[in-house]
Task: structure prediction
Amino acid sequence: MRVSTNFTLPLATLLLGLLLVPPAALAGTTDCPVEPASGTAFATGDAFAGPNCTIYNNGDVDSFVFNANNGDIYQLAVGINSVAAAATNICLTLYNPSAVQIYSGCTSINWPNYQNSVATSQTLTASGTYTMLITETSSTRVPPLNYVVSLERIYPFPPNGQQVNLNVRVPGNINLLTDSNAFTFESVTTGTYLVSATLPGNASTNLCLTVFLTNGTPLPYNCTSIDWPNYNNTAHVQFTPPQNGSSMAFLGVAGNDGIATYNLEVSCVVGTCTQDTRPLTKKAP
Result:
């Protein structure tokens, strides 16, 4: 799902955006603590962004902790957000409750494999407190490295996911680097569903859509393509659920390093896509 783009949001632009977007859109977003600080509490749906979210040298370590359960699936992402072009990479490392490293990944600021952010989805195998570390690979440059970091629980579906109904266009807004949006909807085995997310015609970043089934299994993702000659401003996933329950549409900017607005819609393609919840009545003798 992490398709690279070369869109980088400067710190000044980010701060202006934080001032202009509606307050409701900023729920869970805050600046990092003033250094020195470690073990900052993180919760699903949270994002940290602001002047304090800065790595000053390769000995500087910012750490965040969150509680999770065995079997949970979480997406973790960090993106470079410096005013000047970054001269070094930023890295994300995850430790389990036993202090064992279970993931480490870094950005790539060199062409042709440019990637301004690093993101991972992890299925956790222990209950307890997990630790995320933000570091950089070297300090051979002058400006400090500002970043944005986010955390989202994918399964069980996040409590901040928005419930949507069939055949209703819902506006969506990714207004922060590394951010993601989750939409849940009821799905039944008797219907085939089409989930679509459409960008405006002037979009400068691509959007990727993943649908998760009731048990947390992801279906193959689909992304838009805003470049010619293969232009397509709609990402879509069609599926027939293997079991009744709630499904989730999970959206993010390709590469997790830009912002986007879009419209989401869940449609019934064929069959019966809603359950009959009317109470049973006895026939007259």
About this structure: The chain has two domains: 11-155, 162-271. The chain has one helix and 19 strands. Confidence is low (pLDDT under 50) at residues 1-27. The first strand starts at residue 29 and ends at 30.
